[in-house]
Design goal:
heterodimer; A: about 575 residues; mainly alpha; 2 domains; six-stranded mixed beta sheet; 6 strands; about 55% helix; globular; B: about 450 residues; alpha/beta; Alkaline Phosphatase, subunit A; eight-stranded mixed beta sheet; five-stranded antiparallel beta sheet
Chain lengths: ~575, ~450
């Protein structure tokens, strides 16, 4: 469909670059996969997945505990039949299938998603080839995705992210196939969009919108009437039943106009740093009038145009969401990475055309530069960070950790080296410590109250869990209390002080730093190394106190696990 | 792709509610203390959080004209469980025992082969009042009261353990809106968040209310309700709303247990308030048992009988109507005589209510029928037009010829001796005092 810069070699050959990418990707995605405990959002999918094994559908109540963020959501995250409806079920059924085969474990919760992540590395290669017909672009795209930090972090999570990337790439792939009148492309497009929908229907909207817009403007005449009917009908058939069942018009996230530019600049900042450095785009805008043209970077390349439209529309759309999470653009990251590869090849070809083969070889050095540094994105990063900080935002978005992080990420240093450390070293997170302690010392009839992090305790312990974002009324004297230092959400004010006033005994779990989140994939807040634990009175940036839990005085300890009992609870 | 759709549809269908073919097998009766219907269902209440029982509200028959038999827990609960007005039961109160010849709902169902159990929050529903008759398992507090989560915990375990094939009847009484509100000030309640962020900012424009000297709420917040903070009306009402929210949540959680254990479609469920609460109306601040105005008599009533269509019925009905209604729905045989009428046949056209020592300060009786209401005390009989005077501020004296007044007189002789009394220990007195009872009134 497109004009390739180099003729494709005939016949099927093994592309050793792809093989290398897949092998390296397998290492980066699978190594140490179960070292960190599942964090809150992963536990949602895992806990519901486990419920599927018992009840056949994701069920938010197990007879004692609820899985709910009812207070925060202010909407129904499960229906009156106790069936989870806040998010689509693909990830939960994937977890359930994995649990059925491998048993319930951290590894089983993450493995299938990581495997799809490896598949995504292959898919971007084939997508780039389909869209550009250029094997160099395909290789470059897969290499860049291999060290793309948001991709790696999200693909190592037990959630829908890799499926969303798969659905998005496959949708663009199938769409171009449709334009080229390839066999089965209609079916593929329907399946791809449906996978994306059942990963996260919010991410589905801009992808569908982008492809429809593209079709209207560039490819309307190529569409066959039966396809115009069959594609939406097929998608509706595979998505509407669940959408109606789940009442998504009631549970969907709300639009929020006020922080639009705050969100937008954050997302653009992330894409610039980890997927498509904007200096490339600026360079193209400057050099194109000077004759640095490219068939790939023209409106004539329908595939690239469609990918770009989906990407841009996607970022513009998700910025309207109240929440600000890198995961909301994670399905677009491979598209931006592929566009980056197109720019790289354009740049190298331009140099070759004007300066000869030698300088062109040098131009290819931009690939390792992109893979292992963020130098190319660096020139515009401060401006984007400043724009984000200057934009209106909601009070709850004024999170010092996130806002500070923008400044911290205005550096040319790439986190791939941190990630290599992460996948080859142990990591003990705060809720891992608490969960292990409670498994050793708690009993089924006991209650643990925690101000943030209820879901990991639900998944890893057998106790009754209250607190967190549940909003379930509770005013008893629980056997255990966990008071987080960096609590978020519905925190009980002065819980720690109240626990001490009530005579609870503090238990300090040395070696488990009380970081706010446990293995959260958002690169702005992710910990690659276990942060140092320090004296609570002398904490500095990057140093955290050990997590503390409290036991009711009448509760006996079975295994102290080296914890300091009865001291150090005061903050 | 059609296969996928079919699977999804099948899953969706399997999750849908089934309708029971025959009569319900089990009965869950949830009584909520001190809950006013409009605070219970008000959409704006408590940080706009939806009613936990919202789904239940949609699938149940909602009686918007339910009147409590008494503005106090024990006599109202006794009326619900026997179908008799308090005057027919020897005016239940601490130290008095229900007459043995009046069958209770639990006794009838036990006789019919049901497993019966009760889980009650306050000590005022102690077993020595006779209200525990017929319950093979009666779970009452050791102290003044238990919190709703404890009551729900006990009930939940009992419900989960029910063997298949044996019908059961469970009565769960939750504190809900009953004070003392300070119980919510304990540390581990996420509702604090709302108090801090939603109530405190509103305090500036709220009126300040005085503290009363004793346990009666006339003219000020009664002692047992008193919180450490200043008595701002908005703050107290918010705590009241929060407590109602707690009762709402746990009542719904019990429904969820039935869903989870697959008993939902064979269980009749009733959620009913025992009485209301005065939030400053008629000079009574956050208390009940001082008068018979609508704020303490109107209660929510939701009845779900499997197989029966949801509806809303605005007729006046009484708590005593539940007894014949539920026994009729369960089809357990002959229904013992009662003062109530089947709710689905219109219920009682006239709902009677009583206030008497030691519940209230004096003997007062009320009869409500539609928008008409008559209140009769020792000194006077007044008629109220609830449509024209919804706040019941303009009572008109009526003579003996008034039909409603006559009806009331016939059914409520002013003085009826108690049938059986039982001594109240010092400990019980102390516990009752914590719940707002005026101890001096317990004296024989």
């Amino acid at each position: 469909m497109t004009e390739a810069l180099e003729p494709e070699p005939r016949g099927r050959r093994i592309d050793w670059t792809l093989v290398l990418v897949l092998v390296a990707g397998a290492f980066l995605l699978l190594a140490n996969l179960d070292e960190t405990y599942l964090w809150t959002d992963e536990c949602e999918a895992a806990w519901l997945g486990r419920s599927i094994l018992d009840r056949g559908v994701p069920t938010a109540f197990d007879g004692r505990n609820y899985l709910t963020q009812w207070v925060v959501a202010k909407r129904e995250d499960f229906n009156d039949d106790l069936v989870w409806v806040l998010s689509p079920w693909l990830q939960q059924y994937v977890c359930a299938a994995s649990f059925a085969v491998l048993g319930v474990s951290t590894l089983a919760a993450r493995l299938p998603f990581a495997l799809i992540g490896i598949f995504d590395l292959a898919l971007i290669y084939f997508l780039a080839r389909r869209l550009t017909g250029d094997r160099r672009i395909a290789r470059t795209a897969s290499l860049l995705l291999l060290t793309c930090i948001p991709f790696l972090l999200h693909a190592r999570q037990g959630r829908y992210y890799t499926f969303a990337m798969l659905g998005t790439m496959w949708a663009v792939h199938a769409y171009t196939g449709l334009l080229d009148r390839k066999r089965w492309s209609t079916v593929q497009l329907v399946l791809a969009i449906s996978i994306l929908f059942h990963s996260n229907y919010g991410l589905c909207v801009p992808v569908v919108g982008g492809l429809v817009l593209h079709a209207l403007f560039y490819a309307w005449k190529r569409a066959r009437p039966w396809q115009v009917v069959a594609v939406p009908a097929g998608i509706a058939l595979l998505t509407l039943p669940w959408a109606l069942f789940a009442n998504i018009h009631r549970t969907a996230s709300r639009f929020d106009v006020e922080p639009y530019f705050y969100n937008l600049f954050h997302y653009v900042f992330a894409i610039n740093r980890w997927a498509l450095p904007l200096p490339f785009v600026l360079l193209f805008c400057v050099l194109r009038p000077l004759g640095w043209k490219s068939a790939q970077l023209s409106l004539g390349n329908r595939g690239v145009t469609a990918a770009a439209l989906v990407g841009v529309l996607g970022v513009a759309f998700v910025s309207t969401n109240t929440g600000l999470f890198t995961r909301y653009v994670i399905n677009l990251v491979p598209l931006f990475v592929m566009l980056c590869a197109v720019f790289v090849v354009w740049f190298a070809d331009g140099v070759r055309e004007r300066a000869g083969a030698g300088p062109a070889q040098l131009a290819w050095a931009v690939v390792p530069l992109l893979m292992f540094t963020t130098a190319v994105s660096w020139p515009v990063a401060p401006a984007l960070a400043a724009a984000a900080k200057a934009s209106p935002h909601r009070p709850y978005q004024d999170n010092p950790a996130v806002r500070r992080s923008l400044s911290e990420f205005v550096t040319p240093r790439h986190e791939i080296f941190d990630l290599l450390h992460e996948v080859t070293n142990p990591y003990d997170g705060p809720l891992e410590g608490v969960a292990r302690f409670l498994v050793a010392n708690g009993e089924r009839d006991q209650t643990v109250f925690i101000d943030y992090g209820d879901l990991p305790l639900l998944f890893y312990t057998d106790l009754k869990v209250r607190g967190g974002l549940q909003g379930i009324p509770y005013h008893g004297r629980p056997e255990w209390i966990v008071s987080r230092t960096n609590r978020v959400g519905i925190a009980v004010n002065s819980l720690r002080e109240l626990a001490l006033e009530e005579g609870y005994v503090p238990i300090v779990l040395d070696g488990y730093p009380d970081t706010r989140w446990e293995n959260r994939p958002d690169p702005f807040v992710h910990f690659y190394r276990q942060p140092p634990v320090g004296d609570v009175a002398k904490l500095t940036d990057g140093v955290y106190p050990s997590i503390v839990l409290f036991k009711r005085p009448d509760v006996a300890l079975v295994d102290r696990m080296g914890a300091r009992v009865g001291a150090g609870g005061k903050r | 792709m059609r296969v996928g759709a079919v699977v999804l549809l099948a899953v969706a269908a399997s999750c849908g509610r089934g309708e029971a073919e025959g009569p319900p097998v089990n009965l869950l009766l949830v009584t909520l203390d001190s809950v006013r219907p409009e605070r219970f269902e008000a959409p704006e209440r408590f940080n706009e959080l939806p009613l936990a029982l919202a789904h239940f509200r949609e699938e149940a028959t909602r009686f918007t004209g339910c009147i409590a038999a008494a503005p106090a827990t024990l006599p109202a609960a006794a009326s619900i469980l026997t179908g008799r007005y308090p005057v027919e039961l020897g005016r239940p109160a601490p130290g008095r025992v229900l007459p043995g010849d009046v069958p209770t709902l639990a006794e009838v169902l036990l006789e019919a082969g049901f497993d019966t159990a009760a889980f009650v929050a306050p000590c005022s529903l102690g077993a020595d009042s006779g209200i525990a008759r017929g319950f093979s398992h009666y779970d009452a507090p050791d102290g003044a009261r238990r919190e709703d989560y404890e009551v729900a915990d006990a009930a939940r375990e009992w419900l989960r353990e029910r063997p298949r094939g044996t019908p059961w009847f469970a009565w769960v009484h939750l504190n809900a809106g009953h004070g003392p509100y300070r119980a919510l000030e304990t540390p581990f309640n996420p509702l604090h968040f709302f108090y801090k962020y939603n109530v405190l900012p509103a305090q500036g424009g709220a009126r300040e209310i005085p503290f009363a000297k004793g346990n009666a709420g006339r003219g000020g917040v009664p002692s047992y309700q008193r919180m450490s903070s200043p008595a701002y009306f908005a703050a107290y009402r918010s705590y009241y709303d929060a407590r109602v929210r707690v009762g709402d949540w746990f009542a719904n959680e019990l429904r969820h247990v039935l869903r989870f254990t697959g008993q939902y479609d064979t269980t009749a469920i009733v959620v009913v308030g025992t009485h209301g609460e005065s939030l400053g109306e008629h000079g009574v601040e956050f208390d009940h048992g001082e008068d018979l105005f609508r704020e303490v008599l109107e209660v929510p009533l939701l009845v779900r009988i499997p197989g029966r269509e949801a509806s809303e019925i605005g007729d006046t009905v009484s708590q005593v109507d539940l007894f014949p209604t539920l026994l009729g729905a369960l089809r357990v045989g002959d229904i013992p005589p009662s003062s109530g009428r089947d709710l689905f046949d219109g219920g009682s056209d006239v709902a009677l209510s009583e206030l008497y020592p030691p519940i209230g300060p004096d003997f007062v009786f009320a009869a409500t029928s539609g928008s008409e209401k008559v209140i009769r005390s020792r000194d006077a009989t007044s008629r109220f037009d609830l449509e024209a005077d919804p706040r019941e501020e303009r009572g008109h004296p009526v003579g003996e010829e008034d039909e409603l007044a006559r009806h009331l007189r016939e059914h409520s002789p002013l003085l009826t001796p108690s049938t059986v009394t039982t001594p109240i220990s010092q400990g019980d007195r102390a516990r009752l005092r914590e719940l707002g009872y005026v101890v001096a009134r317990f004296e024989p």
